[in-house]
Amino acid sequence: MTDVATIDIIGAWVGIFLTMCILSFLYGDNPFYKLGEHLFIGVSIGYIVVVQFRNNFYVKFDRDLTWWDLAPAALVAMMFVKFASKQLVWLGRFPLAFVIALYAGQSITGLVGSDLGDQIKTASRSLVVHKIDLQTAGANELSNVPGVSPAIATKLAAERKDHPFESLDDALTRPSLTDSERADLADERGVLVGTDARATAAGGRNQIDWFGVASQVLLLIALLTGLLYFYFSIAHKGAIGRVSRVGVWILMIGFGASFGYTVQGRIALAIARAQDVRGKFMSPHDAAQIHGEVAAIVSAVIIIAGIWLFGRHEKRHRAGATPPAEAS
Amino acid sequence: MTDRVHWSDRLQRFDRRWIFLIMGLAIVVPLYLPIGFPIKPRPMTKAAFNAVEELKPNDVVLVSMDLDPASTAELEPYYRAVILQLKRKNVKLAFTTLWYQAPPLVERWLRETVDVPIAPAGTPGYVGAPDRAYVRNVDYVYLGFREGKQNIMLGMGADLHHVFDGKTDDGTPLDSIPWMKTSRSLGDFKLMVLVSAGSPGAKEYVQYVQNRYNLRMVAVTTAVSTTDLAPYYQSGQLLGIVAGLSGSAEYEVLVGKPSIGVEGADVLNAGHGVVIVAIVLGNLAYFAGRRRKRKAA
């Protein structure tokens, strides 16, 4: 095990100090937060310039150029013509038109296929959903069930070859399955045929998966009411108004889910910073040399003392600047 | 005589910095005193896992690392888990990124997870086959970063070698690597693993190339993007989605190596508890205050 280089230890401490600087904004705006913010913006811009030059400009000049390579350069030059001549300002519209047209063309073909075609196909699936038959389904069909891994599917196919399943409960007792695989399979009970020990797989073919049916019906209702809310060619009154009101509720549920995930994401950021302070993203050997927790405490003390001193200085400065008549 | 302030008013004027402090404690304390909430993988996480499990040795997989340092909290645990799973399957890996913020991160992660084994034999707490060190430009390639967002995706769909000027990031000709010689466009990859923090990322890959080339894709995404991507999972355009830190923790459990994701998910539950209590108290204060004002009027 090698020692962590001094420069890396300093880097880790600076990182922790800057984290505490940014977090100090939760107390209120202060010079430490401003320092962290300005450093972040400055470093980000410097980094962008270097990366773009290395990965995009340099690689282009590092190979044989063709006449086509001049086309982007010409478009860029046209953007800057306005600084040379006011009469030729109109030339700057061509690169913008080119970029907008390019993205519009790409987006139309892409979005029509993926966001319209495939989504319509999914939304227009049959409302009747059948359970998957453990006895006859192929390994591929079985592994399409979310909780059934290809390994489980292969084991089930091998097991039923020797001894056909009498029920799902029978399948769950087969020795080749591990405990975790058994638990995964049991979780998918609802979509598989043989929901109890009495219904044999063979006798239960074409059983309806009522949970699947309910999901499809719910999806259809949500889709139609949601679409109706955005249909403005008829007044949203009476029955139409009531149905579009359901659409609003569906949208609110969607936004609620997004909000919940957003909260999760923000808390995850805070967790990662705390884990970083504890050195969880590095080996225990390196973490023991960096002492992240000590760095966090030292940083917090410096920042709290600094904010207190700064506040006192501000107060004195304001008191000194107040005209004597007003002060009395 | 002083009027007693009603509890709902007091709660509404409550200094929010106390909530920040409570949240800070809710995050720090469980890191030192783990609660140990159970983690049960969701179907879409299992589906992502299963899609990788279906791979055969020497299949070629493209890993697109479209992320920045701010999203590592949610995506890094998944990345480490899926790379271990991919290496166990002994598949060939091609890495790329469409985010200018990513290259230093990707290069560091490649050094830490691909160039060396993640879980050699005897790793404590690990349930699964050991992985091995991958050799650069033999078992894996790093194609580097290209600016151009959706244009690069479309370019890779048509001619991946042309987009990267026929070279890996370190200048090795792609044609000199036998499996890359035959992997000339996205359609030649058995699976695409999208480590995606936003745009351009998993959503754009689905919109611009999945449908066009009928590609097999799984995605890990930041929690905030999950609801945007969920319809693509239901339609089968994405074979699986791993949603944020909680999804990453589930993936670690599936791979058999609980690590920073599982630890983070435990803390996440405590943080969620604080948010839920704050929401309930805030609503109680609001409705109680409104009722009191109505009564007074």
Describe this entry's structure for a reader.
The complex is a heterodimer of chains A (328) and B (297). Chain A has 328 residues and is an all-alpha fold. Chain A has helices spanning 6-23, 31-61, 70-79, 93-123, 139-143, 150-162, 168-172, 179-187, 210-229, 238-277, 284-290, 292-321, 324-327. Chain A is extended and about 90 Å long. The N and C termini of chain A lie far apart (69 Å). By secondary structure, chain B is α/β, with parallel strands linked by helices. Chain B folds into two domains: 7-34 and 269-296; 43-119 and 127-258, MTH777-like (Rossmann fold, 3-Layer(aba) Sandwich), CATH 3.40.50.10160. Chain B is 51% helix and 11% strand. Chain B has eleven helices and six strands. In chain B, strands 3-2-1-4-5-6 form a six-stranded parallel β-sheet, with helices on both faces. In chain B, helix 10 (244-255) packs antiparallel against helix 11 (260-296). Chains A and B meet through helix 2, helix 4 and helix 10 of A and helix 2, helix 3, helix 4, helix 6 and helix 8 of B.
Write the layout of secondary structure elements.
The complex is a heterodimer of chains A (328) and B (297).
Chain A lengths: L5 H18 L7 H31 L8 H10 L13 H31 L15 H5 L6 H13 L5 H5 L6 H9 L22 H20 L8 H40 L6 H7 L1 H30 L2 H4 L1
Helix pairs in contact in A: 1-2, 1-12, 3-4, 9-10
Chain B lengths: L6 H6 L4 H16 L10 H11 L6 E7 L5 H17 L3 E6 L5 H12 L25 E6 L4 H14 L14 H4 L9 E6 L5 H12 L3 E5 L4 H9 L5 E4 H12 L4 H37 L1
Parallel strand pairs in B: 1-2, 1-4, 2-3, 4-5, 5-6
Helix pairs in contact in B: 2-11, 4-10, 6-8, 10-11
Q: Kindly state the number of beta strands of chain B.
A: 6
Whole-number total of structural domains of chain B: 2
- N-end to C-end Cα span of chain A: 69 Å
pLDDT < 50 runs, ≥5 residues of chain B: none
Q: What is the name of the CATH superfamily of the largest domain in chain B?
A: MTH777-like
- Helix and strand content put the structural class of chain B at alpha/beta
Low-confidence stretches of chain A: 195-202
Output the radius of gyration of chain B. 23 Å
**Class derived from helix and strand content of chain A:** mainly alpha
Mean pLDDT of chain A: 85
- Seen as an oligomer or otherwise, the chain set is heterodimer
**Percent in helix of chain B:** 40-55%
Most residues in contact, chain pair and counts: A-B, 54 and 60 residues
First-residue to last-residue Cα separation of chain B = 23 Å
- Which range does the strand content of chain B fall in? 5-15%
Task: Note the main sheet of chain A.
Answer: none
The count of DSSP E runs of length 2 or more, i.e. the number of strands of chain A, is 0
Q: What would you call the shape of chain B?
A: elongated
Q: Please tally the helical runs of chain B, counting DSSP H or I stretches of 4 or more residues.
A: 11
